[in-house]
Write a structure and sequence with these properties.
There is one protein chain. The protein is of the alpha/beta class. The protein is built from seven helices and 14 strands. α6 packs parallel to α7. It is globular.
């Protein structure tokens, strides 16, 4: 995990508990910060420290992370970079901030990278058990998990896939657009399509893999056409979205809506009509 870090930063990370390391913020010429169990702390040579003692990554170290995480071939991951992210070998999602270069209205490349948000995947067994019990008491249904970024939606979806596989033996197709969702145990009856947009993954997956359930992460407005296609085909969809309220969901295609209330904590569960479900 995090093998792509330059030696100086890797040494700092080695002094913290990886089980509670959720994010690493690497900014050129600014102090190194880490999200440890939901709280951002500064990191120095010996781990957690005050701001004055924090390591300050260089622009060269930021560039080295991109090069190392790409397997020393940036050209091989150009499509990911154009979308503003890169996925490490262990499923670490590296969000990228820099200068976007456009050509004809489309992103041509990303240059002058200055900041990285490295999200560290975690497997939390049975973290989705409550959702499974409350949403599937009458059988499988389509579920959308809602919360702002960083509250554990991906971890919950990963565990929900595992539970569905173990308890129902249904064929589960995981549409992993960024290579992050599949970084862990998805279950023995799960198949994965990586780095395809959701419409392409859903279309190809339904035709070729005959799934009973499709799992996907971070729905955008344009992705609901793919969800509608799956639901109308008789499949169940388990997904997440960066939304806080039921009213903000652009199309009400799901049977249950789970609103998280903090990191990994289930708040309210609503029916497809927005009614509270016990």
């Amino acid at each position: 995990m995090l093998d792509f870090l330059p030696p100086r930063l890797e040494c700092a990370v080695r002094h913290v508990n990886l089980n509670v390391l959720y994010e690493l913020r690497v900014r050129a010429d600014k102090p190194l910060r880490a999200d440890l169990a939901g709280e951002f702390r500064y990191l120095g040579e010996s781990g957690v420290c005050n701001r004055e003692a924090a390591l300050v990554p260089t622009a060269e170290e930021v560039g080295e992370i991109i090069l190392s995480a790409s397997g020393r071939s940036v050209y091989a991951v150009e499509n990911q970079l154009r979308q503003g992210f890169l996925t490490g070998a262990e499923g670490e999602r590296i969000g990228i901030a820099g200068t976007y270069v456009y050509d004809g209205g489309k992103v041509l490349s990303l240059r002058h990278i200055t900041s990285l948000c490295i999200r560290v995947p975690h497997a939390v067994k049975d973290c989705a058990a409550e959702i499974y019990a409350r949403c599937f008491r009458d059988g499988l249904c389509s579920v959308l998990i809602l919360s702002p970024p960083g509250e554990g939606k991906t971890t919950i979806l990963r565990d929900l896939s595992r539970l569905v596989c173990e308890r129902t033996s249904k064929n589960v197709l995981v549409s992993d657009e960024r290579g992050e969702l599949s970084a862990g145990d998805l279950g023995q009856t799960a198949d994965v399509i990586c780095y395809a947009d959701k419409l392409a993954a859903f279309t190809a997956g339904i035709r070729a893999m005959r799934p009973d359930v499709i799992v996907t992460d971070e729905l955008l407005t344009e992705d609901y056409a793919a969800v509608r296609r799956a639901v109308e085909s008789g499949l169940f969809v388990l997904a997440s979205a960066h939304l806080k309220r039921f009213d903000d969901v652009p199309q009400k295609l799901f049977d249950r809506y789970v609103l998280l209330d903090g990191l990994g904590k289930v708040g309210e569960i609503l029916s497809g009509e927005g009614v509270h479900v016990d």
